[in-house]
Design a protein that fits this description.
Two copies of one chain form a homodimer. Helix content of chain A is about 30%, strand content about 20%. Chain A has about 400 residues and is an alpha/beta fold. Chain A has an eight-stranded mixed beta sheet with strand order 10-9-11-1-12-13-2-14, sandwiched between helices. Chain A is globular and about 70 Å long.
Chain lengths: ~400, ~400
């Protein structure tokens, strides 16, 4: 058991963890997105906060969203792995239980010799995907005693969940990953996955039979078959009553994995903030997630990311500082520099405000480089939760 | 397996790791050697680089050259130990194979009662050492079925290599470490070392017989008997094609241990840089080592060290920045402060230049204390390789 877990006590002090997804950047014309943004409210807050930087996973490691968030929630992201199938299922909003084996699936096209001609079935439109999923679901609701759920994603992508308590994970993929090769049989990597392999292979056979003669796609490929990891909850570990406010399904799903209640919200920042305000009394830990900064970074749109940060500063920050949290933390899960058009390994700035901080003497700016010189130094993201609990006076003394 | 190893991918992006041996210092008149040096080129490069400091092994630990370099190459220096015998053998330029058991040896003088009168045989001249080694080698070419190689070092020091596939390591020393004591029998610490102990003890007996009556030295002492550790190579771990340019044999030997090709060079800095330039297209990772800064530190010659750093800045840096590496890192294996006349535990400054850094806004100096406030924070030397690989875009994303 981690040290922090052994020290956590109950309390009515409240923590707000705000995650601006992909906030960290690298410079274009000498300034990062955050440094280029006009953020008077954040700067004012920074002047009375502890500042530092967080390394999401480890030095040099570019994280996916799953491990990056688990680290922020205080979990070792290398120990607790969330499989691709589970992330996909969470991403389309499925509730995943302990008996669910989840798979990423593609509609694909096989040639007459049984080799994969197109792994993505020409990226069929999302509507076709929904239609084909419905056809499969109509005919396949159960294989052996496993319930089968088939849900469309975008274009050729969909998700299959096999639900049965006899299904272990630890399976190979059927997707050969390159066109021109034959699809692979799904093999169990350990005895507990024997039934799972049988069920998954049978699903592929039956799907192929149903799709025979279908022009758009005549085959399905499965990969990333996984069950959700067994993770001790935030309640168990830190004696928190935690809630998540996030507009995007995957983040809502990740939050559920660690025991958070997921609050109702529409997909606007105002609605998200209102959800926190509405439930302020009901929880003592809130994870408030804003996705758009990451999307602007992924698009390589530096200016759009700057504008989003400015919007956050103007419209959101004053509301957050007003709500009366004992601890307010503003940070990110990882960097998504517009220059790189994707996630990166760079550290992210972190700001922790409470009555018990040592504010910076001369820093009056919230940015990657001011934070790197902050009083917190450079921490692993996984260490953040301990710090937030401490500032909420929710950790007892270690030793006498 | 380390996380970084699982993420490494092949690429044609190139990394240059420059090691100024013993660069780190402590102040004389308020400035370290590096801070006292006039280094306009390094300062200009620092202004557009990521800066930080590296702790070679662990806080407070003064490293030898072996572990310090292994850490820079991404290896846990506490896990991978290179025995003294192996380092000595590498230091005199021997190629060490997997069947080689290497020992540091001293010529010594025993008194009439068989106690060690002088462990160093009065520090006999290097020429005498060579002469005595030749006498031993002439008579002793084989013991049991082990081939025996005897090579002179400086003064009373020499190296013995026993070559045979049956020789395990894990042995005690024969050197009692104090004059006036009897030499010790070499004992195996594990069953696999039984033959090794027999062969080594027999070597000592036969040497004593050959040296009987010799005034300069009548005995040999062995210690640090070791085989080279089994280390996964940089190719295997990081998918690199690595080369080393170093003028001193030990560094060339260390580089071979981790799978680097060792390039031809003369013992001048110009020749070393020319070797990198010549082979630029042939490798994607270069370790470029300059020894002299460490020697000046060991000599306690502050001014000489300053001059060497200035020479590096003036003659070498412009050539390095010109070559077109995707990632350029300038750092050191450990500190060798002139004030201490030896290696020390202090952290070393590190500079990483690539297109993807967050340069310091206001730092325009490459020095221990500016680097300690750098955006990278303080890293373990072992973490550096992950960062260099990341900046070369040679690591895939962790998780989804």
């Amino acid at each position: 058991m981690n040290l922090i877990d052994t020290l956590a006590v109950e309390s009515d002090r409240r923590i707000l963890l705000v995650v601006l997804d992909g906030l960290g950047g690298i410079p274009r014309d000498k300034k990062t997105e955050l440094e280029a943004a006009w953020v008077p409210n954040l700067n004012r807050l920074a002047a009375k906060s502890s500042l530092g930087c967080l390394v999401p996973i480890d030095v040099g490691v570019t994280p996916g969203s799953g491990p990056a968030h688990l680290a922020l929630f205080g979990y070792d992201p290398v120990e607790y792995r969330v499989g691709r199938g589970v992330l996909e299922a969470l991403g389309i909003g499925l509730d995943i239980g302990p008996d669910d084996l989840c798979a990423r699936a593609n509609f694909a096209i096989l040639d007459s010799e049984g080799n994969v001609k197109d792994r993505r079935a020409g990226r069929i439109p999302t509507e076709s995907c929904a239609e084909l999923c419905e056809r499969l679901q109509k005919d396949i609701s159960r294989i052996e005693d496993a319930e089968v759920m088939i849900r469309p994603g975008k274009e050729h992508r969909f998700v299959v969940v096999f639900r049965d308590e006899g299904l272990g994970d630890g399976l190979t993929d059927s997707d050969p990953l390159h066109n021109g090769r034959a699809p692979l049989g799904i093999e169990p990597l350990r005895p507990e996955a024997g039934k799972s392999a049988r069920v998954a292979n049978r699903f592929i056979e039956r799907s192929a039979a149903i799709l025979a003669g279908e022009k758009r796609a005549n085959y399905v490929l499965l990969r990333g078959l996984a069950k959700k990891p067994v993770i001790p909850t935030l309640q168990e570990r830190f004696k928190l009553k935690p809630a998540c406010v996030a507009a995007y399904p995957m983040y809502r799903g990740l939050a559920k994995l660690v025991g958070m209640d997921v609050l109702e919200t529409e997909n606007t920042w105002d609605s998200e903030v209102a959800a926190v305000r509405k439930h302020f009394e009901d929880y003592d830990f809130f994870h408030l997630h804003f996705k758009e900064t990451d999307m602007a970074g992924e698009d390589g749109d530096f200016d759009a990311k700057v504008e989003l940060i400015e919007k956050f500063d103007e419209e959101v920050v004053p509301q957050l500082t007003d709500m009366g949290f004992d601890v307010l933390c503003i940070t990110s899960d990882h960097s998504t520099p517009a220059v790189l058009e994707g996630h990166s390994w760079h550290s992210v700035p972190v700001l922790v405000y409470s009555r018990y901080v040592r504010p910076q003497a001369r820093v009056e700016e919230f940015g990657e480089r001011t934070c790197a010189r902050g009083d917190l130094g450079c921490l692993r993201a996984q260490q953040l939760m301990g710090l937030l609990l401490a500032h909420a006076l929710r950790l007892k003394k270690f030793g006498a």
